[in-house]
Amino acid sequence: MNQNPRLVTFNNVGDRDELTTVRVCKKITITEDRKNANWPTTEYNWSDVASGGVVITRKRGEETIFEKHTPDGRIILYSAGERVAFFETIGGVASADFQIVEEM
Q1: 71 class by beta-carbon count within 10 Å (0-12 exposed, 13-18 middle, 19+ buried)
Q2: In this predicted model, what pLDDT tens digit does every residue of 89-99 receive, in sequence order?
Q3: What sign does the CA torsion over 76, 5, 89, 57 have?
Q4: What order of strands is seen across the sheet that includes strand 17-20?
Q5: Which of 8, 32, 45, 54 has minimal CB crowding within 10 Å?
Q6: Do 98 and 87 touch, CB atoms closer than 8 A?
Q7: Residue 87 CB neighbours (<10 A)
Q8: Peptide bond connecting 5 to the previous residue in cis, omega within 30 degrees of 0
């Protein structure tokens, strides 16, 4: 399993940050970085659009996993530079570092 961990900072409500891939991958896992002081520090929202749309809320410490599938269940690869979702913190702290793992 090839992984490419990196850190990104997501900010508070009203300022959704775009998450894009940096390389071709099958699966993307997002979790708040355990090195943040007083981890877990924040709940967060994610959505597939910059504003409006359906918003999914995650509790402190929960991870989010993204995979794309064909209608018959086969995995589709994400392209390098592909937009995955938009994120914002919603409770606790105004911004927090999150670990992004892109797996092949």
Answers
A1: exposed
A2: 987 788 899 99
A3: positive
A4: 17-20, 83-91, 43-47, 55-58
A5: 54
A6: yes
A7: 24
A8: no
The DSSP symbol for 77 reads P
Question: Each residue of 22-38: pLDDT tens digit?
Answer: 999 999 999 999 999 99
Report domain extents, the chain: 6-103
For the chain, the first-to-last Cα distance in angstroms comes to 6
Residue 12, C-beta contacts closer than 8 angstroms, at least 6 positions apart: 88, 89, 90, 94, 95
How large is the average pLDDT for residues 39-45?
93
> Which positions ≥6 away from 39 have C-beta within 8 Å?
32, 33, 61
Query: What span, in angstroms and rounded, lies between the C-alpha atoms of 20 and 8?
Result: 11
> Which CATH topology does 6-103 take?
Jelly Rolls (2.60.120)
DSSP state of 79: P
